Amino acid sequence: MASVAVIGLALVLTACAGQPDYRAAENGGFGYSERQLTDNQYRVNFKARGDDTGAAMDYAMLRASELTLENEFEWFVVSSRETFVDRERVTNNNFGFGFGYGFRPRSSYHLGMTLGDGRKEVAVNLEIRMGTGEMPESDQAYNAAELFENLRPPTE
């Protein structure tokens, strides 16, 4: 029985560890997604486990730069930016073994495992407007190619 629980835990941990942070979200899950608003405007979303708002923002900006380049634009301006940190409602990891006596001489053993944790979730939402030619003078304007080079994950 214990070996089945250990094998199950190992499989779950391997599956979780095998997914890269920067990826397309599937069915509202973790990763990036976008929605086209107009020919040159998008809403970009990135959702990640944990509470690293900086990394989540970097990945949202990375996706914005990719979309800009894929659509043959040179720069983009962030017109709206929101960051949310939310605690998921799940049980804490629990793996234990116990032994005890009651009023009558009896013993009990238990072996249990619950999966999940109380980690937070970060979501970043950006609305961007893309363009070519002279980039607007704004703290919210970014050269897409330069940003892509600076933020893209290292290739292994």
Features:
globular; single chain; two-stranded antiparallel sheet; alpha+beta; 3 helices; 5-stranded antiparallel sheet; 156 residues; 27% helix; disordered N terminus; 39% strand
Inertia-based shape: globular
* Order of neighbouring strands in the sheet with most strands: 1-2-6-3-7
State the separation between the terminal residues, measured CA to CA.
38 Å
The fraction of residues assigned to DSSP E strands is 35-45%
Number of helices: 3
Derived from helix and strand composition plus strand pairing, the structural class reads alpha+beta
Q: Mean pLDDT, nearest integer? A: 78
Number of strands: 7
Give the C-alpha Rg: 23 Å
SSE order, one letter for each helix or strand? HEEHEEEEEH
Major pleated sheet: 5 strands, antiparallel
Count of structural domains = 1
Keywords: Signal
Signal peptide: 1-17
Protein name: DUF4136 domain-containing protein
Organism: Aliidiomarina shirensis
Task: Report on this structure.
This protein has one domain (2-151). The protein is an alpha+beta fold and 156 residues long. Helices cover 27% and strands 39% of the residues. Strands 1-2-6-3-7 form a five-stranded antiparallel sheet. The chain contains three helices and seven strands. Helix 2 crosses helix 3 (144-151). It has helices at residues 2-17, 53-70, 144-151, and strands at residues 31-38, 41-49, 75-87, 94-101, 107-114, 120-131, 141-143. This is DUF4136 domain-containing protein. Keywords: Signal.
Question: What is the strand and helix layout of this fold?
Answer:
Elements: H1 2-17, E1 31-38, E2 41-49, H2 53-70, E3 75-87, E4 94-101, E5 107-114, E6 120-131, E7 141-143, H3 144-151
Antiparallel strand pairs: 1-2, 2-6, 3-6, 3-7, 4-5
Helix pairs in contact: 2-3
